[in-house]
Design a protein that fits this description.
The protein is α+β, with helices and mostly antiparallel strands. Helix content is 38%, strand content 16%. The chain is built from ten helices and ten strands.
């Protein structure tokens, strides 16, 4: 269920180092099979990288359990929190994640900026991935000593305006309250799911017991791109395609899905409008 950004870099690393990439399988509901995950772990496991919340299904993974099991065999963990940070409370100390990352634009900030959290011990042990100004303490032609954290990893002129805008976006989310956001979205997800299940021929992809506010679906006899086009004409915006998760589409044997994502600004009236729009799609194609 991983986004391509948590697949492709590891494939590149495997090509460079000879490492092997293991994949945790999932069931038809879109839930990771934890028994199979345990079988994949062994003392040679170096890192476990998983998404906190699936961008294509809305599945909320049991990341605390995943992290604890990885640590038991000495593996380092990286959690992709791009879809979790805007929608639910994330306690990094309680999770004990070694690395955690999320994107600025998912929390109503600008694109092209994000956050990468890492434990100090690991970051101190790692060399810089790029060189330049401000990431050094001293430079001679014989030797360079690196700056303290986090400057060691921040070579060159930073994206100053992006950082300021991201901070403002996080303050905005904090002012509303992440618990308030989560409660509203959870209620809206339940309402929208019930309404969508009334539509004949519509199949929801991803029915995990624990989900975030995402409904990804297919409609019998209609390509998702056609669904998106007609809904757009009705003033309804959804995302259609493989959602940067092509292996997931292969798992469900579909070319694409239509994804309706509900945020803190959405309402039940808009969920009703989505249902009405899908009924219009059925009228056009049937």
């Amino acid at each position: 269920m991983e986004h391509h950004s948590n697949i492709v870099p590891w494939q590149m690393l495997c090509e460079e180092t000879g490492a092997k990439l293991g994949v945790i399988p999932m069931n038809e509901r879109g839930e990771l099979l934890m028994e199979q995950y345990e079988k994949l772990l062994n003392p040679r496991t170096r890192m476990v990288a998983v998404t906190h919340v699936s961008n294509a299904l809305g599945t909320i993974n049991p990341v605390k359990q995943i992290i604890d099991m990885a640590h038991a065999v000495g593996a380092v963990t990286l959690i992709d929190g791009a879809q979790a940070a805007p929608h639910m409370k994330v306690d990094l100390q309680a999770l004990d994640a070694d690395f955690y990352t999320f994107s600025g634009h998912k929390v109503f900030g600008p694109t092209g900026i994000g956050v990468l959290y890492g434990k100090a011990a690991l970051l101190n042990a790692m060399p810089p991935y790029q060189g330049g100004g401000d990431m050094i303490l001293t430079v001679t032609f014989e030797k360079t000593t690196y700056n303290d954290l986090p400057y060691k990893f921040e070579a060159g002129t930073p994206n100053i305006e992006g950082v300021i805008a991201l901070a403002a976006a996080l303050d905005y989310v904090k002012s509303i309250g992440i618990d308030n956001i989560a409660a509203h979205e959870h209620e809206l997800l339940g309402y929208a799911t019930a309404r969508l299940r009334e539509i004949p021929g519509l199949h929801i992809s991803g029915t995990a017991a624990v989900k975030a506010s995402v409904n990804s679906s297919t409609l019998e006899g209609v390509h998702p791109h056609d669904i998106g086009t007609i809904l757009d004409q009705e003033g309804i915006a959804i995302r259609t395609g493989h959602h940067c998760a092509q292996p997931l589409m292969m798992r469900f044997n579909v070319p694409a899905t239509g994804r309706a994502s509900f945020g803190m600004y959405n309402t039940k009236d808009e969920a009703d409008a989505l249902v009405a729009g899908l009924e219009k799609v059925i009228e056009v194609f049937r």
